[in-house]
Design goal:
It is a single chain. The protein is 27% helix and 28% strand. The chain is α/β, with parallel strands linked by helices. It folds into 2 domains: 35 residues; 203 residues, Metallo-beta-lactamase, Chain A. Strand 12 and strand 13 form a beta hairpin.
Length: 246
Amino acid sequence: MQKRVKRALVGTAIALLLPALFFGGYMWKAKTEVKKMSPLETGEVAPGIFALKDAFVNMYLIRDDSTYIAIDAGNSTQGTAAELAKLGIAASQVKAVFLTHTDGDHVGALALFSQAKIYLSSQEEEMIDGTKSRFLIFKNRITLADKGLVGDQQTLLIGNIRVKGLLTPGHTPGSMCFQVNDSCLFTGDALSLKFGHMDKFNTFFNMDTDRAMQSMAKLKNLHDISWIFTAHYGLSHNFAEAVSGL
């Protein structure tokens, strides 16, 4: 009897310990990868384009007279609100939010932009409706009351700002870059910038790195791009140099 009880206790202990060790190892690795990132400080980083730094990630605002569109939606409501205040921009001035994908550090402050329509790629919808898991049991499930789905190569006009969706799957199945007014490319987590050159994003966070690399390689064929803005690795003002190693 005592042996059976001991075996049961040992089995229970192991069952509890293994997930804790796995989760602890995952979090340690995630923190290690985040330390490699180098987001921009909050401010105007190009004419009419503003970066907001919330912890280890950037979202961007593009000005259209007195209103803005946003690329992504920050890591947290509190952090994003504080960065908006630094810029003297009200969340109500943001009329549209384009999500490069739906990981938590890109949608964390969506609640601030209640007056904006939210756009994401058609393929990313399976991430937010619970159809596809982000990692094991973890999902990107979110509810969007007013959303628009963007197809690959589809162009939308928001005020005077022209936004073209470029499907770049790999980081997530529906990751999408946005080409804004022809000359600006917002990449989210589709890639990193290292010494001015495009490189793969942190493999640890990618759902399919091989696919992400294929998506990144296609970007070198774009025309008229002057600026590249990433979510975690700053910007480039030299597209030719950035794609030269692809």
